[in-house]
Amino acid sequence: MSTEVHRHLDQELDELRDAILRLGGETEAALRHAMHSLAERDTGEAREVLEHDDTVDQLEVEVDRRAIDIFALRQPAARDLRFVMSVTKMAPVLERIADHACNIARAAIELTNEPELNSLIRIQQMGEIASSMLASALDAFTRSDPAAAREVIKRDAEINNLYNQIFHDLIDLMAKEPATATRDARLLFVAKHLERIGDYVTDICELTVYMAEAAIIKHRH
Amino acid sequence: MTPSASFAAPKFEVNAQASPGPTATKIEVDQLNFYYGKTQALKDISIKVPERQVMAFIGPSGCGKTTFLRTLNRMNDVIAATRVEGTVTIDGEDIYAPGADVVDLRRKVGMVFQKSNPFPKSIFDNVAYGLRINRVTSSRSELDARVEEALKDAALWTEVKDRLKSSALGLSGGQQQRLCIARALAIRPEVILMDEPASALDPIATSKIEELIVDLKKQYTIVIVTHNMQQAARVSDLTAFFLLGKLIEVNSTEKMFTAPNERLTEDYITGRFG
To answer: Is the pTM of this model over 0.90?
Structure first.
């Protein structure tokens, strides 16, 4: 390949990286605002999360389009191949995290007029851990740092433990106070969305490890 | 991944897990050096080629891959002032040993060149040529059968069976190249060396040659030099990367194109070499 061709490929890879990082940034913001709207009972902020989801969807399509172009026109190999492959698989994962953030925002709107509950504190804890994991995962991806990605994966257990506690608390509460069951169920769904986000962040970290080391660690931890 | 710190020539053993199927060594090269006069073109090459597998040689122009290919059937012998050190064994026999039968070697190790080179004879006579000069067949019917077999193995029979007496020069470029493969196959070699066999062909003709290579490895050990890395990826089980007369890495093709061990290999196959 000529130098000019290298430059084109490098530029296309940079643009793909920019697109996935923008998608990551939008997803982080969606989760942060969704959790904030839930804590502050801010329906306006929750609606902004929902309205902003189109941007996330468009970015996912942009990542797809750029990646397909690179596959078709550049036939990337080795580290380039692993990068494009990882980004291609990461984009729908980020989009799904943003979908979960939207579901949390919808729950925030529905819960606005419901009385507050102690479980919400632990759900906020889950949200903080999920946000922090997502930020660290994207950081590890940006730096192509497999060690940092592996550290993030370990934190998924924290989210799972909190989810189990919240699950039992809310089931107990539903049994004791059936009148609040609808609210409790909505909170349970919020907790489940956060638990799933933890799993998706783990997927992102696995892709970072693959990108950096060519090691497939999926289903092995 | 550990970037290559030097150009030290490692010895490569093919990982059986990386190359499923028969893994008995067909060709073994040990510490091979090759010189054109005072110029050293190959430096301390050691490599094993497993039986009935396709090994691709890749590398930039002038890296020595074609020179190395030609050492495997002593084709460089015809070039004046060349010198070989080290050993090349095929089925355990040193092909450079004093008294080694070069004619027998070239019968065992066929070669297909970059540019198809049919003789200005009929299609039939091209394929029958090696059989006749080696007096392989004892009757006309046996000769006919061997020619038909070779043309079928080269995936050319259905296209030429009704015009075997026509000039080979009337065939298309892709057909001429398959005819040359048929000519090589007619004497039933065990190894086929191919030097950029599809570089002058259009994509359809290239595809036919590639399909043929994959099919032929059921019976033959194939070593192919190619500048087309996608072709190496498509047809080969193993890939060897050469640079400046040295063998930098040999690995399963899958590993080579997704996660090569050497930084130099990675730089080459991602197009960032130099």
So the answer is: no
